[in-house]
Design goal:
By secondary structure, the protein is of the alpha+beta class. The protein folds into 2 domains: 52 residues; 106 residues, Band 7 domain (Tetrahydropterin Synthase, Chain A, 2-Layer Sandwich), CATH 3.30.479.30. Helices cover 64% and strands 17% of the residues. Strands 1-2-3 form a 3-stranded antiparallel sheet. 9% of the residues are buried.
Length: 181
């Protein structure tokens, strides 16, 4: 009797395992097709991105068109003297410390070198703001309340922005407003 039960269970197990194999095989094939489609789309996207013009080319093209307008409005000597860039106001959550959630409200002005290209700086302003926000998000309130913490923040912001500027550089960062709540 025990042999009959074992013999009845064996075909049932064989049937169950054989019915799973085609399903696994189909899922494997579908997965491979999906991975191939994703790889193809990434290839096409990278190809499209490589055909886009470089930032330096865009700046050169915009300078050609803007030189006439700039010469009519303001002499180029005045443009070179203007070396301050207002970054407007940042309101950013600080990293979570031991206490309640806190944020910083910061208004900063960048002092740029005389050889800085104002069009490049304006074109990179969103990137500059994103960098400052990322740096502020990583800071705890205790880090910023100390005088050395504020000086270190200035140096961090300055070096992070200078890392991707092509023409010119940031000489100094001025805090116009600095409030931690």
């Amino acid at each position: 009797m025990a042999e009959e039960e074992q013999s009845k269970e064996a075909p049932a197990q064989a049937k169950a395992s054989s019915s799973k194999n085609p399903l696994v095989a189909v899922l494997l094939v579908v997965n491979m097709i999906a991975l191939g489609a994703v790889a193809f789309m990434q290839y096409k996207f990278m190809d499209m991105e490589s055909k886009k013009p470089d930032l330096t080319e865009l700046l050169a093209q915009s300078n050609k068109g803007n030189e006439d307008v700039a010469n009519e409005l303001v002499p180029t000597e005045d443009l070179k003297k203007e070396s301050l860039l207002d970054l407007e106001t940042f309101t950013v959550n600080l990293a979570q410390g031991d206490g309640p959630r806190r944020y910083v409200r910061l208004q900063a002005v960048l002092k740029m070198s005389e050889d800085s290209d104002s069009t490049e700086v304006e074109a990179r302003k969103p990137q500059i703001r994103d960098t400052v926000i990322s740096i502020l998000n990583s800071k705890r309130p205790e880090d910023l309340l100390k005088k050395d913490g504020k000086l270190y923040l200035k140096e961090q912001v300055k070096s992070a922005i200078n890392a991707y500027l092509i023409d010119g550089k940031v000489i100094d960062v001025f805090y116009v407003g600095f409030q931690i709540n």
